[in-house]
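fyi for ur records
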Amino acid sequence: MSHEENGSGLAGQVVVVIGGSSGMGFETARRVRAEGGQVFMTGRNAERLERAAEIRPLGTATFDAADPDAVRAFFQELPHPVDHVISTAGGPSYLPLAEMDLGETSRHFGDRLAMTLAIAKYGQDKVRAGGTLLFIGGTGGRRPGVGRTVIAALTAALPALTANLALELAPVRVNLIAAGFVDTPLSASLLGDRLEARREELRATLPIRRVVGPGDVADLALHIMRNEALTGATYDIDGGQQLL
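which gave:
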């Protein structure tokens, strides 16, 4: 019987949130705690991670998730098995070919794939059967455009990676959330003074007539954690942006 069927939700479960210091990661951690679950939270920035004290995590760790050795050390040091791992770490790269530093671009692409594989490789033995490794990707690269070359390649690669890992790591489940624009501190830092204009554009054009927020993504993440019939799939959440 799944946790959703027996009505327990996430009460008593333990969730690792990689990239949990802000945005989608922090909101997911907060909602897990609200449901009676426990969290381990990680982030690159120690000062931002101190915010985790607000929700009383089991523990925190500061490291760069793009470093496979740091990911391995983190999972090796976890004191006991966990129910779920969600990673919101990693950001997009939007640059036209003429402006690319090929070395930096290759590192970005390779780091993102290596991070996903490292979490799968070193996290699998810490996740209980029926739990999920849950990754965050995007939908923005599905439509061709100038400056979208790298993000498009990652957008195509992550669902394929997820499906194959779901078979290889079974009965641990592996799933991917593909988000469109989400109103987070990362979005604010990328858009700068264009942020409010982008919000207004989305409010006017999206079928849902509002901007997708971290809480929307967190709600979807918790559903995937609860529902033990879900594995190997990509779940879009973009407010209908792809329909336009």
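The longest strand covers residues 127-138. thats all i got for now
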